[in-house]
Amino acid sequence: MDMITISIDHSEQADYIYQQIYQKIKKEILNRNLLPHTQVPSKRELAGKLRVSVNSVNAAYQQLLAEGYLYAIERKGFFVEQLDTFYTEEQTSSFVLPDDLKEPAVDRGEWISFSHMSVNMAHFPLKSWFRCEQKSAARAFHTLGDMAHPQGIYGVRETITRLISLTRGVKCSPEQIVISAGTQMLIHLLTELLPDDALYAMEEPGYRRMYQLLCSAGKEVKTIRLDEKGMSMREINKQNPDVLITTPSHQFPTGVIMPVSRRIQLLNWAAEVADRYIIEDDYDSEFKYDVDSIPALQSLDRFQNVIYMGTFSKSLLPGLRISYMVLPPELLRKYKKRSYDLQTCNTLAQLALQEFIDSGEYQKHIKKMKQMYKEKREKLIHALDEAFGEKITVKGANAGLHFVTEFDTNRPEKEILAHASRLQLEVFGMSRFQLEEGRKKQNTPALIIGFARLKDEDIGEGVKRLQRAVYG
């Protein structure tokens, strides 16, 4: 140990003394300057040499002992452990992340967003939510120290059951509900409950993340083109899937609302063969503008073939990460046999949500946001009509937080999006939601226009930038 010099920095900015000793000895061991089974000085000897307390040296030795750099022999002292050498001979002082993995810093200060993924956070009743959080935490504080039920807290499931029965016509009991931190986790769970060789089918265009999740899980996924009523029955019968994934209340991304005639056809299709299921993704059903709320597909299901999925990401905040599904009895029976599932959704967030709904704050918030989104949507569509006239077609605008715009222009979608980016306008094209490679794409450029986070004062400037992106 005499050949090793440990310099102690006593300044206020320096690490604790024991950490400095620990770091120096560890470095010497890794650099092979201290060979295996070499005895290091006693605690008292090293403390005297460095003019520090024995406690500081002891803390450093105990840390090295705990991490396996040293071993102790009773009445003899501490020795260097036998360590394998690293394969690489090159020693670097610090790790540097490769450039291709670095995330660029993005300043969105001057950007205007037409993103369909956003919600309006400025009008979220944060004070009301915190009151609900504090009230529920005070009332059920003891539950925070326990593992929550794998399906979620029963009282929360009761509240969700009442809510979706009242607002969506969903028929279920609290026992059928599974709460999770996001729809993707629920889909992953479903792939384990459904047959391994099940053939899935999704809407084309559709939700790419879900499509990629299923493909990465090794599932075979077909895509079903849309007609004026939603998923084409002709293509469904041709592809003959076992599981359909659909967004009937507001097709994502086109905005088509599936009429009852097609809903009945889908339900009859599912009832024809055993173990056929329909996954109904009801992602933003809270917001209907020119029509009353349309009951969920599950509300018409007489044979328990529909798996209903809902989320609070659009109605509240995406960051809360609270989604849920309603399992038909047969799938629930399979789920109950799983003994290794843990609840992924924050317990306090679940309790706050329950209080928020039961107190009436949720419905009050939805009513307010529905009116606000309706007015914003009308202002935006009016501004688009003023700017583009007959060269724009708006589709799917009577529900949800986005609509589709098609343009009469010679400029292709890719070029429009490139111009929009240079103009600091965030917007997405329909090609983003084409699931299958090689599918024939439409000739008319189509953009998905979200308006949830758009400020009223930015509507005019946003439309001007869009006009420049489309026509130059």
From TrEMBL:
Domain HTH gntR-type per the UniProt entry, residue ranges: 15-83
CDD domains: AAT_like, WHTH_GntR
Cofactor: pyridoxal 5'-phosphate
Keywords: Aminotransferase, DNA-binding, Pyridoxal phosphate, Transcription, Transcription regulation, Transferase
SMART domains membership: HTH_GNTR
Entry keyword annotation includes DNA-binding: yes
Keyword DNA-binding assigned: yes
Stored PANTHER family: HTH-TYPE TRANSCRIPTIONAL REGULATORY PROTEIN GABR
Family in the record: In the C-terminal section; belongs to the class-I pyridoxal-phosphate-dependent aminotransferase family.
Protein name: Transcriptional regulator (GntR/MocR family) with PLP binding site
